[in-house]
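Why predict the complex rather than its parts? Because the way molecules touch one another can change local conformation, and only a joint prediction can capture that. The input here totals 310 residues.
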Amino acid sequence: MANWIPTWLHRLGSPPTFYRFAGAVRPWALTLALITGAIAAYGGLVLAPADYQQGDAYRIIFIHVPSAWMSLFIYFAMGVAAFIALVWRIKLAEVVAMESAPIGAAFTFITLVTGSLWGKPMWGTWWTWDARLTSELVLLFLYLGVIGLFHSFEDRRQGARAAAFLALIGVVNVPIVHFSVNWWNTLHQGSTVRLLGPSHIDARMLWPLLTMMLATKCYYVASLFGRVRADLVAMESGKDWVKALAVEETA
Amino acid sequence: MNQFLQMGGYAFYVWTSYAVFAVVLLADYFAPVFRRRRNLRDVRARMARQGARRRNENA
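Output of the joint prediction:
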């Protein structure tokens, strides 16, 4: 068996190593996110044809749907990190779980606002208590609950464990959001893009959508790594490597 | 160009959506950048305080 993989993972789990690793990866992830995001926006706003029913209003899809995918993906990632944090008590997993929450909340917020801005001209209403919309709103409250619970403890590791537990319970909401359009007869439309089988969308509209998905994924990495770095410095503030770093940055 | 900006009459909805997307992610990206710098500044301040105390004890 390849022994270096567990060794490498173990080393990567140590705060100073991960701090450096994250610092090296972050600019590349951000650059990739900006480039693919710009290409996707150009493809979506300029190259893609107008929709035969919705005209140009449908162009909101190119940010609404990737943001919605990210709101679920980040919750799932946070749940996995929370599980690892609770079972193996790995500090880095705690940090990853807690620092994922604000990014997920940001994407969920974008999803709700852009959905509202799309719903007004198409459905005639900013908001409706439809299954998809309601479960997505619950997702936002779960993120805010995790963030709030984490910060409400004097001891940060205790707070992280309590919040990780809440995050883990909240994972049940992820399939509810995803399947809400199939389980209930809702105003919100069903999935347009499918992993299995053909997508119900023109190729000229599909590629900007998938490119934006890639951009938001890269953005998540960039944002998460920036957040983890900021947090590691605070968490390990008494350690020598942080002190050395603090001195180094003034010079 | 003007036609592009009008978005077939949906300019307000489309551009507001893209603006929200950009502004929220920009804020999300820069918040930890400042937080990390502030945290390191706190570490430096504490080291300075501890250094001063140690010098006083030795005097």
